[in-house]
Structures are given as C-alpha cells and as structure tokens.
Design a protein that fits this description.
The protein is mainly alpha-helical. It has helices at residues 2-7, 13-33, 36-51, 57-73, 84-104, 111-133, 139-160, 171-196, 203-225, 231-251.
Length: 256
C-alpha cells in the first residue's frame, strides 16, 4: 500500500501493464523469427501504444525512439532459434516500456526518480551496443549515431528537471543553456567511450565504467545548474568514479 500511494496515482496501471506485456510478446517474435512482418508489427504496436493517448508524446519521443532502436539492435546478439534469452531480453525491455508509459501517461507520482532509472538504463544499453559494434567497419556512422543518442539522452534528462526556480532567466535562455550543456556532456562522454574502447575488459565492464562516468557528469551538472556545486560535490563524484572503476577493473578479465 505504501508503494502504491508513493509511486502510483491512476487506475491506468493495469492498462499500461497489458500494453507492456503485448510489447514484450511482439518483441520476442522479432527476436525469434527475424522476419519483415514481425518487425513491422512490432513497430506498429509500439508506436500505437506510445501515441495513444498523445499526451506528452512529443516530450519523450526522442528517448522512446532510442529505446526502440536499442531493442531492435539487440536482436543481432541473440540466438536466431527461440530460446530463453530471447524471452528474458524481451521481458526486460517490456518492463522498461511499462515504466516509460507510466511516466508519459502520469501513472506514477514520483516520475523524476523513475525517469532517472529509465534514462540510466538507456545509457547503459547504448554503451553495450556501441562496444559490441565497435569492431565493425562502419565505425564513423556508429560513433556519430552514439553521439547523437548521448546528446538527446542528456538533453531529455536535463529538461525533465525543473531549473526555472534556480536559474532566474527566461525559458528560452534556460533551454539554450540546457542545449549547450547537453552538447558539452555528449562531447565529453563520446570522447570517454572512444578512449575506453581500447581497454580489454569486455563490453559489459566498459559499459559499466562509462555509466559511472555519466552518473558523475549528471550530478555535477545538476549541482552546477542548481547553484549547489562546491568542492565536496566534486570530491564525492571523483571518489565514486575512482572506487567503482577500481571495483570493475578488479572484477573484469582482461581480454586482449
């Protein structure tokens, strides 16, 4: 009951859950059959559920589009034959589709916290896809696409937070400032993953290290925009990056 009162505000929860289940099943069909019609049906179902209702559809569409692309690209690394990994992966994406619709349709009360979870999941999934694709011959296109996705994820994350009270400026100026910060963060992150790609620690560990860096950049940016950035915040994030990086490196197996 506490969880319901704290996070859930609408009877639409059941409807969102049914949509997420159908989303998972159609995605599992894509993973298992790899046919044009399964792909077409999945896209049609996902877009219909997202845009119905249309409320706040534009606000989250770029993140949702990244989510769909990642879900489809994952098919390249799953077994062609039907298996448990196909259904488990489809179920995981279905869970985050459920959270996505819950945020967009105002099912959840504490939307900021849940969106942070979804945003971090998208960053982590994007890094996994990038490090898996890193050895292909289309590196420039992949790197450019990753940069664009990173920019959009940072931009959506910052726009989701309300800085109007902290930043005494017109909305247009706040938007321009957020766009500038998003570009800067995307440049820093894309350069980081480009350098990290040479580390022989496996794609999961590389994605984990990159996510730690993103979390630190997010916290520093929020502290700066809210006017609370100081030495203790910088030291806290530097310590977090150092500790988690050491743990990941110790736990990883070097793969030349």
């Amino acid at each position: 009951m506490f969880f319901y009162n704290k996070f859930i505000t609408s009877h639409n929860l059941f409807g969102v859950g049914v949509k997420a289940l159908i989303f998972s099943l159609t995605l599992a069909a894509v993973y298992n059959y790899r046919s044009f019609w399964s792909f077409f049906f999945f896209i049609a179902v996902a877009l219909y559920f997202y845009f119905n209702p249309f409320f706040e559809a534009k606000k989250y569409f770029s993140s949702f589009l990244i989510f769909l692309v990642i879900a489809l690209l994952t098919a390249n690394y799953l077994p062609v034959i039907a298996g448990k990994w196909n259904f488990l992966t489809a179920g995981l994406f279905g869970l985050f589709f459920f959270l996505f619709l819950g945020i967009k349709n105002l099912v959840f009360i504490n939307r900021s916290l849940i969106y942070e979870l979804v945003n971090n999941f998208l960053f982590f999934s994007l890094f996994i896809i990038f490090f898996l694709f890193n050895k292909s011959g289309w590196f420039f296109i992949e790197y450019s696409a990753a940069f664009l996705a990173i920019f959009l994820l940072f931009r959506n994350f910052l726009f989701f937070r309300d800085f109007q009270r902290e930043i005494q400026a017109p909305v247009s100026l706040i938007s321009a400032k957020i766009n500038l910060f998003s570009v800067s963060l995307a440049v820093l992150t894309s350069q980081f993953i480009l350098a990290a790609a040479y580390l022989p620690i496996g794609f999961l560990n590389l994605a984990a290290v990159s996510l730690v860096a993103v979390l630190a950049l997010k916290d520093l940016t929020i502290s700066h925009l809210s006017g609370s950035l100081n030495r203790s915040v910088v030291l806290k994030n530097a310590t977090m990056v150092l500790i988690f990086s050491v743990i990941i490196f110790i736990a990883s197996k070097w793969q030349p």
